[in-house]
């Protein structure tokens, strides 16, 4: 189940379930696990339908082929998660962070991805009939057009620098270095001008006047 050694309250949860003869699928399906730490867990091919995972840390988790129908994932952290071929029909991922996630081949029919971050996510081969992507972050215009043609509602999805994360990126990577370079250039020019002390003006020696003999 687990693919890293990061401690989690779910370790005890799964262990107690196994002692009671409950499978991992039975332990998770329809359960309330909001706010749990499931980062790095291998949940591939499990039945997680109806599970409430709002605000849960699922970063770097493996959920390829999992049944996530009607799952509540509002505000969940799914960065770098593997969701290849997963069934997310009717799931609610409003405000979730799916940056860098692999959703290739996933079924997203009628799912809600409003206000979600899909920066760098792999959306190849997905089924997006009636899927909501309104007010979304990280979707290039080309992908928005493609999703719309496939039946998705992209609403006011954006890939502009007006969003908080991308604005910070532009400030850190582009704007600040340029300002530093300009300021540095200005200081260098000033120092160069100061180092070039002006040459002293030549003094004009007055020629002695000849006294006339009386």
Q: Name the CATH superfamily classification of the largest domain.
A: E3 ubiquitin-protein ligase SopA
Q: Name the shape in a single word.
A: elongated
CATH topology of the largest domain: Pectate Lyase C-like
Low-pLDDT sequence parts? 1-7
Order of helices and strands: HHHH
Structural class: mainly alpha
Q: Please count the helical segments.
A: 4
Number of strands: 0
CATH architecture of the largest domain: 3 Solenoid
Radius of gyration over C-alpha positions, nearest whole angstrom: 32 Å
The average pLDDT value, as a whole number, equals 80
Q: What is the CATH class name of the largest domain?
A: Mainly Beta
- Approximately what portion of the residues adopt beta-strand conformation? under 5%
What is the terminal-to-terminal distance? Answer: 125 Å
Instruction: Bin the helical content.
Output: 25-40%
Largest sheet: none
Overall tally of structural domains:
2
Ordered list of secondary-structure elements with their pairings:
Blueprint: H1 9-19, H2 24-28, H3 141-149, H4 164-195
Keywords:
27% helix; elongated; 2 domains; mainly alpha; Pectate Lyase C-like; 214 residues
Short description:
The protein is mainly α. 27% of the residues lie in helices and 0% in strands.
Describe the structure.
- The protein has four helices and no strands.
- The chain has 214 residues and is an all-alpha fold.
- The protein folds into two domains: 1-159, E3 ubiquitin-protein ligase SopA (Pectate Lyase C-like); 161-191.
- The radius of gyration is 32 Å and the shape is elongated.
């Amino acid at each position: 189940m687990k693919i890293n050694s990061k401690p989690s309250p779910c370790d005890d949860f799964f262990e107690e379930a196994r002692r009671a003869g409950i499978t991992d699928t039975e332990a998770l399906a329809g359960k309330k696990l909001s706010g749990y730490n499931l980062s790095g867990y291998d949940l591939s091919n499990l039945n997680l339908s109806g599970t409430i995972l709002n605000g849960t840390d699922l970063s770097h988790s493996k959920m390829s082929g999992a049944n996530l129908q009607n799952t509540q994932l509002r505000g969940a952290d799914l960065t770098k998660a593997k969701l290849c071929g997963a069934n997310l029909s009717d799931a609610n991922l409003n405000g979730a962070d799916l940056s860098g996630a692999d959703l290739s081949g996933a079924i997203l029919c009628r799912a809600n991805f409003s206000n979600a971050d899909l920066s760098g996510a792999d959306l190849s081969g997905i089924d997006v009939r009636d899927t909501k992507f309104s007010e979304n972050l990280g979707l290039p215009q080309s992908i928005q057009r493609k999703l719309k043609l496939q039946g998705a509602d992209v609403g006011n999805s954006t890939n502009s620098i007006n969003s908080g994360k991308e604005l910070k990126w532009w400030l850190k990577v582009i704007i600040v270095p340029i300002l530093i370079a300009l300021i540095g250039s200005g200081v260098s020019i000033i120092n160069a001008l100061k180092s070039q002390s002006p040459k002293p003006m030549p003094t004009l020696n007055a020629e002695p006047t000849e006294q006339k003999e009386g």
